[in-house]
Structure formats: structure tokens, C-alpha cells
Amino acid sequence: HDALYVYKIPTNLIFDFDYTCNFQCPSCRTQVINWNSDPVFAPINDRIASRIKHQVIDRIEHTQQVQIRWAGGEPFISRVYRDLLEYIIQSGNTNITNIIQTNGSYLKSKGDMLKRLAPYLKELRVSFDAASSDTYAKIRKNGIWSNLIDNVKYAQSILDTSVISADFVVQIDNYQEI
Questions:
Q1: pLDDT digits over 3-15, tens only?
Q2: d(CA 34, CA 64)
Q3: How many CB atoms lie within 10 A of CB 151?
């Protein structure tokens, strides 16, 4: 039988396989999920990451534009997502651009990584889902509004502000704050 082989990496990829997140938002999950050292999911994620490194990232030519969107959990605390992002940085291939969806809670504490990611960052999408501290506390469970604001200001100080955007999932508790 004939095997299917992809000769050129697609120009748009979405990595959505690690749901590790420090938040427990009603619109997304009912509990905090941490697969970083989970006996079942961590080894699976490590195998996925290894394949992505060698079958995808290593094969992206320096003349080809490839955009990767990171989804599923919080990329700045996901061990496997951070490992892949570091691999991209180490590749030096700035034709690999990234769209990172984040809850914003680790932007400052992962500032060194954020600085090194700057040349590879197309968009940093920060989930606000609120315009006030009270609403944020309801919707972004485990999040602290003042920390989010501080972290976003930090990101603005080190990144081109045109790459930072605010996301807002409309819900019954926040629609009046759009």
C-alpha cells in the first residue's frame, strides 16, 4: 500500500495537546489540570514533542513561513510547550512565528523566555474575559486582576505592543463589560 508523506510542512499549525493550566475557568474546565509530571499524560506529551521537534520543526526550511498557534492550556507553565518553544528559539529560524494564547499569569515570571521569544512571536493573545476585578475573579478562577494588569504592562515593556492582544470570551457574567 502507498504511504502518505508530507514533503513540505503546512504554513499554519495548531498545537493543542497539553491542557496543563493553573486556572479553573467555568468556560473551559472544571478543575486545575497539571500534566507536567502526570504518569499517563507526561510520557505521551514527551513523545508528541519529540516527533514535533524532529518531524516538523527540524524540517521547516529557513525560506518557508510557518505559523504555530499554541492552545489547550497555559503555554508558560506547560513543561512540554516550554520545551518546544525553547527548541524553536534554539533553531534560530525566525520564519517560525507563534501565536500564543495565555492567561497572562506567568508573563513576568517567564520574562526571560518572553524576551527570547520576541523574534518568533506574531501574536500574544491574553485572555482577559473581564474589564473589572470582580468579574475577573468570577470568570478567571485562580486569577488575580492586579497580577494580570501588572503582567501585561510588563509584556508591553519588552515586546512590540502590536503583537499583544486581549481576548474576551463572552459569557453571562461578563457580556456587559465588553
A1: 777 788 999 999 9
A2: 34
A3: 24
